[in-house]
Write a structure and sequence with these properties.
The longest helix is centred in the middle third of the chain and has 11 residues, at 101-111. The relative contact order is 0.12. With 264 residues, the chain is an alpha/beta fold. Helix 3 packs parallel to helix 6 (135-141). Strand 3 (50-52), helix 2 (65-72) and strand 4 (77-79) form a beta-alpha-beta unit. The protein contains eight helices and twelve strands.
Length: 264
């Protein structure tokens, strides 16, 4: 099945991604989430709703990943392989398949509609330079809060607090691009660039049709950003009331709201 079926499948959910660090069990005792994604088979012994696996072969056991995952779990598998239940058509740094499955799972969680992604049992391979390097595409592409349980990844993202309020979910416009939807969008130039008569310096913003800047988006010369919220003015009353200064004091309209503290 095309993985685009997963887009906004869980809007506003807190989604936990479970990796293979030794701290996973201890981390999960602290996590409060709505949806759980196992990276490869690491979360198979815990509640998991999906598995994300980028590899064709299990790195340690040297057996096909398909048979290994099917032997430990019945959860749908998300990845770039033809045998996956949901076949990814894009992901951070696509078409490279060497991207860490845990980082791709983080991106998948955001695409599903996560208002926050919580990484448990993940430590960037003990903070190794090669492991930490995989964080950069996720910092760039995932447009929702990411929280970690501590360790080396806390140098990249804030530490998880179960009492944190993430506010109301608001879909980022770049998800429409993943869905293949054209329309008006707002962009910010990451580098000086031009296309179709549009010339942008770094940091410039513009409102354009998505197809007009498809090449710039594909080459990451621009990024999509939320449209500014339109100011909503209160509609004028059809009946014009007398000016406030012409009314007696006791005829002034009363305002609703909390009383002053000395009257509460």
């Amino acid at each position: 099945m095309d993985s685009r079926a997963l887009i906004l499948k869980h809007p506003g959910a807190r989604i936990c991604v479970m990796g293979g660090a030794p701290s996973l069990g201890m981390d999960m005792a602290k996590v409060q989430a709505d949806v759980f994604i196992s990276v490869n088979g690491h979360g198979s012994g815990l509640r998991h709703d999906y598995i994300v696996a980028m590899d064709e072969e299990h790195g340690t056991l040297k057996v096909p990943m398909r048979s290994y995952l099917r032997s430990i779990s019945g959860a749908p598998v998300i990845g770039p392989r033809a045998w996956n239940d949901y076949v990814l058509t894009t992901w951070p740094d696509c078409p490279k398949t060497s991207v860490l499955s845990g980082m791709v799972a983080c991106w998948v969680a955001w695409v599903m509609g996560a208002k926050a992604v919580i990484l448990a049992g993940m430590n960037g391979y003990d903070g190794s330079p090669s492991g930490m390097a995989h964080c950069a595409p996720i910092v760039r592409d995932v447009k929702c809060p990411i929280r970690v349980m501590g360790g080396p990844l806390s140098k990249v993202w804030p530490v998880y607090d179960p009492n944190e309020d993430y506010g109301e979910y608001e879909m980022h416009p770049s998800i429409d691009a993943i869905k293949g939807v054209d329309g008006m969008t707002r962009i910010r130039a990451l580098k000086p660039c031009s296309q179709a008569g549009l010339t942008l310096a770094k940091g410039d913003e513009a409102e354009v049709m998505r197809h007009q800047v498809a090449r710039l988006l594909r080459h990451r010369l621009v990024e999509e950003i939320p449209m500014p919220k339109a100011a909503t003015a209160e509609p004028a009353s059809e009946v014009q009331e007398p000016a406030a200064e012409s009314q007696p004091q006791d005829a002034q309209p009363k305002r609703r709201g909390r009383p002053p503290k000395d009257q509460a």
